[in-house]
Amino acid sequence: xxxxxxxxxNLDVRGRDCLxxxxxxxxxRKVASLLACGAKxxxxxxxxxxxxxxxxxxxxxxxxxxxxxxxxxxxxxxxIGATDDVGLNRQISAEAEKRQMLCNIADFPExxxxxxxxxVRRGDLIIAxxxxxxxxxxxxTLRKQIASTFGPEYDIFLQLMGAVRQRLLAHAHAPxxxxxxxxxxxxxxLLAMIREDDVPAIDRLLADVLGEGFRFKELVGTTDPENR
Length: 228
Hints:
By secondary structure, the chain is α/β, with parallel strands linked by helices. The protein has three domains: 17-116, Rossmann fold, CATH 3.40.50; 117-150, 2-Layer Sandwich (Double Stranded RNA Binding Domain); 153-227. It is 43% helix and 17% strand. The chain has helices spanning 25-36, 50-58, 86-98, 136-149, 153-170, 178-187, 190-195, 199-210, 216-220, and strands at 17-23, 40-48, 61-64, 78-81, 102-105, 118-122, 125-129. The longest helix has 18 residues, at 153-170. The chain is elongated, with a radius of gyration of 22 Å.
């Protein structure tokens, strides 16, 4: 039987009240991902990994050392079940479904209405890989392959493109005029120039395409690899 088809989205969880049930290693990884995206995270677990203890002590997460209750779902944006108790995971899924909540249960695709892909991040570049739950191990393998292809230059490239876009918008350029300019930068080899850290070539290309007043270091700052 074929797995269900998932609708791919990028979800904004900034300031959203998110619940993770289970505080072991898997739960800690889920919490880390949520925190990195600005979520407000509560963890419910009797036992917790050291990372969660640290986040709780610093106030980054709210930790409740007790068993899960269905009322814990009230007012939450999403819930992630990360326990090793199959019955509890099924209960979390069922209670979330009653409330039409976003719900992910680790290693239990049938209990999820969203799944978490393997992800490669290069600053604002996010590449998500999913096998629709058929083989998470293969998704991780693909992630490693992709990560070796997309280096830190992609982060710098997107920072520059974003800064250029904001500069153009600030000067009342019509958005529809931007597309050929960005295409010219891309086709002019901007990414390769950033990879080679060739600032003079980048500045020449910016001037040729956009005119004077667009300089790499002024737009994105230092090219020190440690800051990439």
